[in-house]
Amino acid sequence: MTVTTVATRRGYGTFECDGAQIRAHCRHLATVVTIRGDINAANVERVSEYLWRFTLGSNPVVLDLSDVNHFAAAGVSLVRRLDEDCRAAGVEWTLVAGPAVLALLGGDGELPVARSVREALRNLAEAIVSRRQLVLPLIKKTA
């Protein structure tokens, strides 16, 4: 099944998935996937399939659920599956969760969570700088 059969294109890059509007855009540091509306048992599989394709690359993913109005228990499986897929593919990811999402997920610290897309991107930038600082002394020793 392709993304075209999963969701109908609506507007400028926005996909409608039975009450959830999804938009993905590539930023310098990550692909930001924003979901608005409702995530429930009726659309969770379609939304999950749409998200899966972003775990295939090497670009980090920021999943912005801050504007989700209704987040059913089925949504928890969506977030857990994304976490598993990203870990398996070695893709960094961050969740930006709104009140509806946080109410079900809680704050157990298992998932990489940021308060905003801006914070998530800043954290990714800081992680890149930290990795470069770790590698720089190794490069100097071999030169």
Automatic annotation (TrEMBL):
Name all STAS domain ranges: 32-97
Which Pfam families does its entry note?
STAS
SUPFAM superfamilies documented for this protein: SpoIIaa-like (SSF52091)
Source domain of life is Bacteria
| Transmembrane annotation, as ranges | none
Identification of the protein by name: Anti-anti-sigma regulatory factor (Antagonist of anti-sigma factor)
**Organism of this sequence:** Mycobacterium terramassiliense
